[in-house]
Amino acid sequence: MISGKKLKILMMSAESAPLTKAGCLSDAVGSLAKAMPESDCDARLIMPKYGPIDEKKWKMELLFKDIEIMTDSRLTSVNLWQTILPGSDVPVYLIEHPLFEAENFNGDGAKRFLFFSLGTLQILPVLEFIPDIIHCHDFHTAVMADLIKVSPYPVYRNVKTLLTIHELPYQEKGYPEIADMDSRTLRTMAKNADNDEIKLMAQGILNADRINSVSPSFAREILDNSEELGIENLIIKKSQRITGILNGLDMERFDPSSDPDIKKNYSYRDIENKSANKHFLQKKIGLPAKKKPPLIAMVSSLVKKKGIELLKEETIALMTRPPCSCQFVILGKGEKKFESELKRYNKKYSENFKFINKSDQRLAREIFAGSDILVKPSLCEPCGLGQMIAMRYGTVPVVRKTGGLADTVDPATGFVFTDFSQTALREALQKAVQVYYNKPDSWKRMQRKGMRTDFSWKKSAGEYLKLYGSMLKENSQNYIKNESKYYDFNLRKMTGD
Predict the structure, then answer these.
(1) Which H, E and C letters describe 191-209, residue by residue?
(2) Domain match, 144 and 243 both
(3) Same-domain check for residues 390 and 411
(4) Are 355 and 485 in a shared domain?
(5) Tens digits of per-residue pLDDT, 245-290?
(6) CATH number of the domain bearing residue 344
(7) For 5-105, where are the E strands, in sequence order?
(8) How far apart are CA 258 and CA 256, in angstroms?
């Protein structure tokens, strides 16, 4: 809160839980919006209205019909719906247009999200809402950081913009013209000199007043790896404006003492009751129902960046025979080559290894409650929720030191390894299993410490409020006004037409 006045924040996102969910972005945006203290800020959220969203279920009302949106070549119209984010008083605006009839991210990504930003720009005056800050989430809304500065309504041109980077490797590319937007509409462009293609995320990085990522370590990794990502000149230009704020966890939603989806509820005070969940899980997935062998779990997308390739057969063979005698359960879907390998392990090590090739939220909860160890050997993990959920449920994480994993797991709550290698993962698992078998008191201390760690969104929201406040005290960034300047993301240099 600045000078006794409420901050006015507009969050822009491609999705928000529970209205729609394609990935972790929706959980983060929805939870952050709910956590914003009403006493300090007027937080609102705007997103596309995708076809599958149930209007009755979410008690949506049509706020404005046929709002005219002017692109650079034609006039089109949108409808604006409103609801309240469940569990909060946060208004949610949803833009209805044929571009959003398909669910979430099915095709035409750049076109849809360029239009979403252009539409939001022209809807704001209709709402008679002038935010202090527009909080853009990921590449889908990044171009708004540029558009707001050239708004046809002068009162909006000084609105500050914050860009939160959730997933830097996923960078949508396209041409402004596909959304009927003349290239000249974007006064400062991050584009490819060869074909005028723009990167939406780079556009946001270049123009946002401030940038943050979803963990402090990931913010440092962005700075350290900017050349590899092809954005080093942008990052060098903005390096003093990049911060990291750790995503939170919905502590009420993920609470083993009240979770209706697990066999038996428990807390850090009666952690012995966790064993009933292990017994239930073993029987459900077809593993021998034994109390002593440690049950190692992985709940993840089966893609390279999640480190699934490190879980080689040599490690499975070693960890499932004495003296380790571990059991494994893997839940997830992804690349066919990884799925095929895990299916082979499923047959060869059927007494100790179970691969469940699907996404299943309830089963995931049962795995968090019933397993002893969660492994997250990620190559890249901007924040990660799995390790926080695991600790909340008394399951000890074994993680690689990267991004949010490095910021949330320490020797008092889990096991951390550095090298992205099969050997480093195997050694970390062996160390964890040794403590599990030989130091039961130490193991219980780790469990209880993890269960009592405060990962609440309240902490994260407080950090965002501080960041918002500091942005309003700053002068507007040195915005490049020369229309002919652009950033060539192939040649990585500033150049002129």
Answers:
(1) ECCCCCCEEHHHHHHHHCC
(2) yes
(3) yes
(4) no
(5) 999 999 998 999 999 999 999 999 999 999 999 999 999 999 999 9
(6) 3.40.50.2000
(7) 7-12, 41-48, 61-70, 75-84, 91-96
(8) 5
Counting Cα atoms < 13 Å in the Cβ hemisphere of 218 gives 26
Q: What residues of the chain score a pLDDT lower than 50?
A: 106, 177-179, 183-184, 193-195, 477-497
Q: Find, among 319, 256, 291, the residue nearest to 450 by Cα.
A: 256
- The answer to whether residue 262 sits within a structural domain is no
Closest among 100, 17, 91 to 52, alpha carbons compared:
100
Whether residue 317 sits in one domain with residue 242: no
Q: Residues 85, 152: one domain?
A: yes
Q: What is the secondary structure of 321-371 as a DSSP string? A: STTT--EEEEE--B-HHHHHHHHHHHHHTTTTEEEE-S--HHHHHHHHHH-
For the chain, the domain total comes to: 2
Q: Looking at residue 456, what DSSP letter applies?
A: B
Same structural domain, 102 and 16: yes
Cβ-Cβ contacts under 8 Å for 252 (sequence gap 6 or more): none
Q: Which two tokens stand for residue 13?
A: 């996102």
Q: pLDDT tens digit string along 1-23? A: 555 688 999 999 999 999 998 77
Would you state the pLDDT for residue 189? Answer: 52
- Shared domain check, 471 and 442: no
**Domain range for residue 77?**
7-248+461-496
CA 218 to chain centre: 12
SS3 of residue 156 by DSSP? helix
Nearest partner of 205 among 134, 135, 146, 157, judged by Cα: 146
Q: Looking at the structure, do residues 32 and 147 belong to the same domain, yes or no?
A: yes
Q: Looking at the domain assignment, is residue 323 inside a domain? A: yes
